[in-house]
Write a structure and sequence with these properties.
globular, alpha/beta, 11 helices
């Protein structure tokens, strides 16, 4: 079965073609809107929606061409229904439903966060629930336990800002361009992670919730009390300290959740899962404690169409694809 996956929840217009049996990603192109939003230091929903509208057809065409198939070979469509920005989601859903009606195939609305977990499944197809999941991105930071039958139990989540947002907003305070996460990681790779003692909120062995608003305030105060020359001179050490504060919070709370739930498998997804220091810290802990560590390839960490199609395939294999919407052709009402 050939699937088309469509992701448009934020600032990536992404389409992918997947083969169901055997599972294989045939193509996974995307258009990133970084240049459109860099001027504003963050994603502007209206600009994002307009960019999706302009790019979704050519990206879908590129996915079909790269997969070496014809449009008529597609047998099902999976698209993101949320969470995300309303305008971008509407563009993706409208395109998916219109194409499904034209091709006379079903369209399935999928959850964006379940897509990030499916990205880890694409890279680790042998994993089976129950397991603990850490979803960490620009808009989400949460720990959820998944049990068989796609039953989810929330273990902890951010009380304010997401980890990815903390990277971007703190980077902006340090004079870095949006998005700042990868830049902070690169600049801090060889830096002193103890140079600045940035705060870790909600400390406690039994606490699984996150908070990053205090960290943003701390970085703001740091920039207000140190001159720009000092910050520029020590930028590598400052970035290393900032990255360590964010990653340390993520790792500490994940370890707490693993101990509380007694899970023996950890699945990580979301854009921040591409962070090398986070991967190293979690992999080291899991390796020492006999916990299976599943994380997507970096190419699948950020928003992409393959993860949305994979989420649908994963549910279909368990006969739990309940969000199916068969789009029938328009027929005029009889007079």
């Amino acid at each position: 079965m050939i699937w088309l996956g469509i992701e448009s929840s934020c600032d990536e217009t992404a389409c992918a073609v997947l083969q169901d049996e055997p599972l294989k990603v045939l193509s996974n192109p995307l258009y990133s809107q970084i240049d459109e939003h860099a001027l504003y230091g963050g994603v502007v929903p209206e600009i994002a929606a307009r960019a999706h509208l302009q790019k979704i057809v050519p990206v879908a065409e590129a996915a079909v061409k790269e997969a070496g198939i014809k449009l008529s070979d597609i047998e099902a469509i999976a698209y993101t229904t949320g969470p995300g920005l309303m305008g971008p989601l509407l563009v993706g859903a409208s395109f998916a439903k219109g194409l499904a009606r034209d091709l006379q195939i079903p369209a399935y609305g999928m959850n964006h966060l379940e897509g990030h977990l499916a990205a880890a499944w694409l890279s680790n197809p042998e994993i089976e629930p129950p397991f603990l999941t850490l979803t960490v991105s620009g808009g989400h930071t949460e720990l959820v336990m998944e049990e068989p039958g796609f039953k989810y139990t929330s273990i902890g989540r951010t009380r304010d800002d997401a980890a990815g947002e903390a990277f971007d907003k703190c980077g902006k305070l340090l004079g870095l361009k949006y998005p700042a996460g990868a830049t902070i990681s690169r600049l801090g790779a060889n830096g002193n992670r103890k140079f600045v003692d940035f705060p870790r909120a909600l400390r406690g062995h039994d606490n699984c919730e996150f908070s990053f608003s205090g960290l943003k305030t701390s970085v703001l105060r740091f920039t207000e009390t140190h001159d720009p020359e000092y910050i520029q001179k020590n930028l590598g050490d400052i970035c290393a300290s900032l990255e360590d504060a964010i990653v340390d919070s993520l790792v500490t709370k994940t370890i707490n959740a693993l101990k509380i739930t007694k899970m023996k498998t950890l699945v990580v997804g979301g854009g921040v899962s591409a962070n090398a220091w986070l991967r190293t810290r979690l992999q080291d802990y899991c390796g020492k404690h006999g916990i299976k560590f599943c994380i997507p390839d970096r190419s699948l960490s950020t928003d992409n169409g393959a993860m949305i199609a994979a989420a649908a395939i994963r549910r279909k294999r368990q006969n739990l694809l309940t969000s199916v919407e068969v789009v029938k052709p328009w027929m005029p009402l009889a007079l």
